[in-house]
Each structure stands twice: as structure tokens, then as C-alpha cells.
Design a protein that fits this description.
alpha/beta; six-stranded mixed sheet; two-stranded antiparallel sheet; 4 helices; 10 strands; 30% strand; globular
Length: 168
Amino acid sequence: MQRIHLIATGGTIEKIYSEQRGSVENLESKIESYLKRLRLPDAEVDTTRLMNKDSLEMTEADRAQVLATVKSKLDAPIVITHGTDTMVETADVLGREIRDKTVVLTGAMVPYKFGSSDGLFNLGSALAFVQSLPCGVYVAMGGRVFDWSNVRKNRQTGTFEELSPLAT
């Protein structure tokens, strides 16, 4: 059975709609709900709840904490759930330091409770990618995987895309 570390940092993938406040917020973890729905037959996912922040609120100290946690997980590939607004910045911090393991960052553009959330698909894709990619740091969104150094969030289209096509 393949072991995978999942590090949860918050972001839209874990946001819920608070009827009392009339807003979408990070209040509690939704990762376990996602994992139950995915029903992964051949993987053991070890979840670390690191923080529960909107990525716009993440600091350099938070990114350093993510990096230290990744470095401490020596025995298996890693998926990180993260807010999409600063996912690329965190991937950059990790990509400059991590060479000896496979790390995939993913998230969602639409919150969990909304029927059109892409979170379940993105998490399932990231779990598949992390088991098949070589060592390195990647961003997996919308069924695509990107190298950490060649990706950006296109805020106009609400998608992730390559900065420039890689030479073949």
C-alpha cells in the first residue's frame, strides 16, 4: 500500500459557508470528508493539519513552517492543500529547497459546500500525480500538473497555466 503525506494549510478547498455570518470562511477541516469520498483503495494518507488560513493571509513564516514540515516527512510523497491565491509563492519556496521527494500542491477555486466545487477532483488528481511524478515540486489544478517554476494563476480565467511552454 502506498503511503502519502497530506499537509493541510487551509484555502478555499476547506472553506464553508457560514450562514450566521453570511460569508465563506475557513472554520474547520474538510480534508477528511474529501478523503472519505475519494475511497482510495491502495493508499494510506497520513494527514497533518498545519494551519487553516486563506492563502492571502499566509506569511513568510507560514511558508517556512510548510517547508520545515515537508522536510520532516522523509518516508513518502507529499500533497499539500493550499489556497490558490498564493499557491505559486509557496511552491516557489518549496521548489528552491526540495529536490529529493515529490511534492504536489493543490486547492480549489470553489468551496467544498458548493455543488460545483472542484476540490474533490483536484485532490484526487494530486493524489494520483504524487504517486507517478519524479522528485520535484508541482502544482496540480484542473486535471493538469505544472512544474513549480513554470506556473501562474490566471485570475481572469480562474485557471492555472504555464508561464511559457516547455521545450520538447
